[in-house]
Prior knowledge:
Chain A is mostly helical and about 450 residues long. Chain A has helices spanning about 20-25, 35-55, 60, 75-85, 90-100, 110-125, 125-130, 150-175, 180-210, 230-255, 260-295, 305-330, 335-360, 370-395, 405-415, 420-425, 430.
Amino acid sequence: MNTTNTSAPLYRRVGQDLREFILAELKPKGKLLTPFNIISAPIILLGLVLIVLRFTKGLGATTNLSQEFPWGIWIGFDVVTGVAFAAGAYIVTFMVYVLRMEKYHSIVRATVLNGFLAYVFYAGALALDLGRPWKIINPIIGNSFGVSSVLFLVAWHFLLYMMAQFIEFSPAIAEWLGLRKLRKILGTLTVGAVVFGICLSMLHQSGLGALFLLAPAKIHPLWYTEYIPVLFIVSSVFAGMSIVIIEGTISHRVFRHQISAEHHAKHMDIMVGLGRLAAAALFVYFFMKILVLIHGMHWNELLTPMGYLYLVEVLGFVVLPFIIFVNGTKNRNRKLLLSAAIITAVGIIFNRLNISVIAFKWYAPIHYMPSWIEIVVTLAVVFGEIWAFRWVANRMPVFMESPQWVKHLDREVEYPVPKGAVASINSKTAALQPVKIKK
Amino acid sequence: MKTTRRKFLQFTGMAAGASLLLGPKNTFGAITKKDTSQQYAMLNDTTRCVGCQACERACAEKNCFPISETKPEIDTQRNTSTEALTAVNAYPTDNKGIVFNKTQCMHCDQPACVSACLVNAMYKTKEGPVIWQEDKCMGCRYCMIACPYDVPKFEYGSLNPKIRKCVMCYDRLQEGRIPACSEACPQEAILFGKRGELLDIAKKRIYDHPTEYVRHIYGEHEVGGTNVLYLAGVPFEQLGFRTDLGTIAYPEYTKTFLYSVPLALLLAPAFMLGLRQATKGKNDKD
């Protein structure tokens, strides 16, 4: 993964033909034979073949799903875990646009892009798992609203949130294509999309947990609690933060030449801030886990095989990364922060799979194990997301500075100047507006 | 954003409108308790069943499935499948010898599968049976996750997979006929009728023959009540029943969460826009 390209801004210039520009942009940039590409490309290709196989041979031939275990890793990992990993977008936009923590502004676009692509790819993988995907439109069109279903809410929130995230990211696309007017309009939609998006996010992060509320007799009592939705939302905070830290650390290296000197200097500050937030969320989560355990009174289960699994999850993947995060933020140690983030991310995978797959029907004599096809397709989805991310980041202003004209445009939006006397006759309001002038 | 108050009102209005559109009544109508005594139901008396599988054969014939070649035997569990919507099993019991038990969909009063289904493909008819509608189902299999009895079965081998489950012969009911299994049973162990009447019959049997029955009608209160009721001469856990499901109707488990959704959509945007105002600095635009 790298881009050895000219240092000049790559966006479309004024007057450049749009079609020509897009066609030129479709070509790959940078070296093709990197270690990452050599590993990921065959997996993506194989994954595509397997996806074709899934649609021509059916779910039975390609997955290990059964009547006992109707949901496997395509739901448990791709959807349930993938959405938790995408949580960074709603948290960072909350910090920047609601709390106005300008420090984090420079990572907003990368995080939102990552979140949006995660939804497209991971939640898109849901379509693979549907037995009757040609009916996927049914929850959207009006004749069959299952409004008492948590999954109905989750489906709608997925759809709306993807749109909100697209709107949040769309100014970058307009800047890339050099579409000034569109950029002006899209820029004004951001705050609305952010606020709406945060609400949707919180609801379906918890909603994914609430799905499992309907299986009280099937999920091991150490994991089943009426507080699953709350636990999901709190854990989504450190899940999102850990992915932002991992993605940030890798991007910082891979896209080094694109990142401005100013951003470089602030990068460590940002990572430490995110680490602190992750540590706080982990602490709250641990506290809640303890409360739930005490209220549930299932401690006798702790000394069973499932209990050991539970202890590994809580001690190894919540308490341990919490300690490392605290140390890492105190010493401003990049390596400690990264390792804490990786442990946290693995812990989230473990936790989500525990609830959706491992502790689900833990009593069954023969338990579900994913087939190799399920695993390869899942890897292909993950790599596909990274490829898409890299493709966009190499072209649009994600890490790179926005083109110069955007600054003028933003000032114009901020302090509109009436367009002379002729225009103001028609628009009474414009005439009444006091004209602010920047000193 | 210059006119924050207007924006604020717009957002609050939008959120209020959205939650009104969903509406608590529409959303939670399924959860309110109603009179089920006039609904169709079945009473399976396990003390009468002799394990002849006539019900299985009638069911297979009615649904054009192959007739099962296995017989109910102790120590082997026979499950319902995509090609067998009912299955008879044999259980060794403490003091009544071998007892047979027929399983099929319980046709819950407030079914977990129906509250799970996001497209109303699983549907509780007003007559009582829980049916599946092919044109709506998208094959997500959430109903299978939710069903406490593991009743819905999915055709994994098919490219046009269907969910298969007992629908209490809903089509036969509409023609004025009774379910095939009930009609075929030589022992009158599968009684078909109105739920209220069947409960009366069950109670009378327990009252008249206190030594033959345990004093419990499975399905009267389990998971909020089911339209298939069972009588037994031994405690139900000896006959493979799940007795740990409780009496709470399954939709109740997600009710709190669903209630909080319109509330969150109403309050969260207002709260966030308020925060945005509160954190406004001297140099910020809006």
